[in-house]
Design brief:
- The protein is α/β, with parallel strands linked by helices and 770 residues long.
- The protein is 22% helix and 21% strand.
- Helix 8 runs antiparallel to helix 13 and helix 10 packs antiparallel against helix 12.
- The protein is globular.
């Protein structure tokens, strides 16, 4: 449980033979003074937060017998000086950060018995002496999850080949009692999962699901019993039969569920710590920490069952909704070198899971109707395959149609016309999704920065494939959005759809979101002088005016706020995440079946009655403009208990003639009072409770730029003060420009030129702090 840096005074203990610093919270670099520990025979630094690379002075420890550095926080590569430690019998270096490197040459280390170099991004061919290592019967070796180029040489030490059986019937649910016998809970039957596991073992006897395990528990004699945990005490939780046994593995445990009908699935992962006991001895320091991936997306990072469940023998159930797009679901748990490995005793580490529930988030079709579909498919499928074959020949130019394309050009640079990227392009641009390139993580998934081969900087957002659209429809609509070009809209370059990958590619915005620089941590805030604030406000207004009045593709954004305004390197403001509603449909039959947006920015007629118009954008813009002037967030406004929000305070100041008090005190006196007063009055015009009395965005632009007179603001308590009264709205609602929820659905369904914009997504998903 220690934190801080390693004290250099340890270097004075020149007779020290064993130094174990594992399972702490140590930071910084190892001090140079440790060079003096020439008598070291055992060094363990795993599960810490060190920085920098493994120091080259490890070559000073010539007497080392055991060197263990797993998830220590160090960056790669593995130093070549490790080959000078010729007395090593146990070498474990895994989970290094940063770029990968080549496999180290260990030819000089003749007596090695345990070797673990897993999860290091190592690449290239294995050195020839590794063949000799693998041929030895008494050596334990793990090179899994690296990038070996010689599959034949690496297969024995990489994760097992994961072959899924053919499907005789499509399925909509699976329930597994992990590590235990068949069990019935209510109307649900949990299938048995008590087949013994093992290092690099693949269980494929079942049709519904299969498992694969990798890794041998270090320092413990090989035994099949190590892969199933069994509780020895009385369990008092509900449904204890699910938690009496658990499936575990020292490295990686994967459940493959094939034969699922495509769609969204609700997943429940059941956990209970039944191995590490809770008592007053040092045993209580034991920590089991691992990661959980669903469909290759991390859903639990550095997961500690005891911490989440509130103790041992207590249940924690993690709920998650995942897409199935290719008929298969993958749930993978793996140990990333963190936690304790010898406390409370040797071998108590690695992933552990008690039960799994997988249920479709949609109703299975009627069986009779299903049979009719099957009969129709038997007739239609051959014709469809013929059509596909002929289309392919035409596409390649063999039937006098489209000229065949040079596929090599698809992998170079950016295809701005089609908006289609290959996954290879994205991997190259992000350095294989290097964690160092991770910008943040939001509701849609992780976001990475990258650089294309032509030098274009991009932001790549990984999406969960929630949309019910087919790939072609998805690409077409992404193409429509990416065709929109305006200086004040974040450019969506396009997308990538390959296998399970569903990625959006945006232009990269260097200065994060407006919310980040205005309200974020002090170190993240930029110095926004008054001219910059004025320019940002005008930029946002111009972007909205384009969406409302100039674009041929009409878009209703629904979530204008400071987190959805991004800033480039020159502090130009751009609206982001417009037109993304269909990527977040969930199970809704239509697009606007619910009000979506952010409280504090939503127009009252939309929040209360679901009436969605472009004037709702105008209201949201007004709130953003007030935030820009005041440097305060409307969401966390706590200026005075007499005022419920920033708008309320501004109206009071206006009535009392004290409007300049609203201006951000960080500006001091360095701002133009006339411009500030004008911006505040325009903002209050935009936030009028009656949508009919709000100006258009083009009028807002003219007023902000001083090219038009600011309309007279009438502060009427009956209009501003009572949020439940909209005196002018009743007449306005009869106009055709007002869209109710049902009308919006109809408009989106009937027009291929209208796009209904985002629901719960946010540009902060692109640039959220770690």
């Amino acid at each position: 449980m220690f934190s801080g840096t390693v004290p250099p005074e340890l270097g004075g203990l020149v007779n020290l033979e064993n130094l174990t610093l594992s399972a702490n919270y140590l930071t910084g670099e190892l001090p140079q003074a440790l060079t003096n520990l020439t008598g070291l025979k055992e060094l363990r630094l795993s599960s810490n937060n060190f920085t920098g690379g493994i120091p080259d002075f490890i070559q000073s420890w010539k007497q080392l017998d055991i060197l263990e550095i797993q998830a220590g926080g160090f960056t790669g590569p593995i130093p070549s000086s490790v080959s000078l430690l010729t007395n090593l019998t146990d070498l474990k270096i895994s989970n290094l950060l940063g770029d990968g490197s080549e496999f180290p040459n260990l030819e000089s280390i003749a007596g090695i018995k345990y070797l673990d170099l897993s999860f290091n991004r190592l690449n290239g061919s294995l050195p020839t002496n590794y063949d000799g290592l693998k041929s030895l019967e008494k050596i334990e070796i793990d090179l899994s999850y690296n990038n070996c180029t010689s599959e034949a040489k690496c297969r024995e030490t990489l994760k097992p080949v994961e072959c899924l059986s053919a499907c005789s019937e499509e399925r909509y649910s699976v329930h597994i009692n992990c590590g235990g016998p068949e069990a019935t809970i209510g109307n649900t039957i949990y299938e048995a999962d008590n087949e013994p596991g093992g290092a690099a073992k693949y269980a494929s006897k079942r049709e519904d699901w299969q498992t694969s395990t990798t890794g041998h528990i270090w320092d413990v004699p090989a035994s099949l019993d190590n892969y199933i945990a069994q509780n020895k005490s009385m369990l008092r939780m509900d449904n204890s039969v699910l938690y009496t046994n658990a499936r575990l593995t020292p490295l990686s445990l994967t459940y493959h569920v094939p034969c699922l009908v495509n769609g969204n699935y609700k997943i429940k992962l059941h956990f209970a710590e039944i191995v590490i006991r809770d008592n007053r001895s040092y045993y209580s320091l034991g920590r089991r920490i691992f990661d959980v991936y669903i469909q290759d997306i991390v859903v639990l990072k550095d997961f500690d069952i005891v911490k989440e469940a509130g103790g041992v023998d207590k249940v924690y159930i993690h709920n998650y909704t995942a897409p199935v797009t290719n008929g298969a679901l993958e749930i993978r748990l793996h140990w990333a070198g963190k936690g304790t490995t010898t406390s409370p005793k040797k071998g108590i580490y690695g992933p552990l899971i008690s039960a799994i529930d997988v249920e479709s988030d949609f109703k299975p079709p009627d069986k009779g109707r299903r049979k009719r579909f099957i009969v129709a498919g038997v007739v239609v499928l051959p014709l469809f395959l013929i059509l596909i074959f002929l289309s392919t020949l035409w596409w390649k130019g063999h039937l006098g149609g489209r000229k065949s394309r040079d596929r090599g050009t698809e992998l170079v640079g950016l295809d701005l016309l089609t908006g289609i990227f290959t996954f290879r392009q994205i991997k190259a641009a992000t350095n294989d999704f290097d964690p160092a390139n991770k910008l943040g993580e939001g509701g849609f998934g992780c976001v990475y920065k990258g650089v294309l081969s032509d030098g274009t900087r991009i932001a790549v957002k990984q999406l969960s494939a929630k949309s019910k659209q087919g790939n072609r429809e998805f690409v077409n609509e992404i193409g429509m959005i990416s065709a929109l070009q305006h200086p004040n809209l974040v450019r969506l370059y396009g997308c990538c759809i390959e296998g399970k990958q569903l990625l959006l590619v945006y232009e990269y915005m260097e200065n994060n979101s407006l919310a980040h620089v205005l309200f974020g941590k002090k170190e993240g805030q930029l110095n926004l002088d008054w001219p910059t604030r004025q320019k940002i406000c005008v930029d946002i207004a111009k972007g909205l005016a384009f969406l409302h009045e100039e674009s041929t593709l009409k878009i209703v954004h629904r979530d204008i706020k400071t987190t959805n305004v991004l800033l480039d390197g020159n502090m130009n403001a751009k609206i982001s995440d417009f037109g993304m509603a269909k990527l977040d449909e969930e199970d809704n039959t239509h697009i606007s079946t619910r009000v979506a947006g952010t409280m504090g920015y939503m127009a009252p007629e939309y929040a209360l009655y679901g009436r969605l118009t472009y004037k709702a954008h105008v209201y949201s813009f007004g709130i953003v403009a007030l935030e820009i002037v005041a440097g305060m967030s409307n969401m966390s406004f706590q200026h005075n208990e007499s005022f419920v929000c920033l708008q309320d305070w501004a109206l009071s100041l206006l009535q009392n003639g004290d409007i300049m008090e609203l201006v951000d005190p960080r500006l001091g006196s360095d701002f133009k009072k006339k411009e500030a007063a004008r911006m505040i009055k325009i903002a209050l015009l935009c936030t009028n409770q009656s949508p009919a009395l709000r100006p258009t965005m083009s009028a807002v632009v003219r007023m902000l730029e001083g090219k038009g007179d600011v309309q007279e603001l009438v502060v009427d308590p009956s209009t501003f003060g009572d949020s439940l009264r909209f005196k002018s709205f009743q007449g306005y609602s009869d106009q055709s420009s007002v869209l109710s929820i049902d009308e919006t659905q109809s408009l989106v369904r009937s027009s291929d030129r209208t796009w209904d914009g985002p629901s719960s997504s946010s540009a902060q998903d692109l640039y959220r702090d770690h």
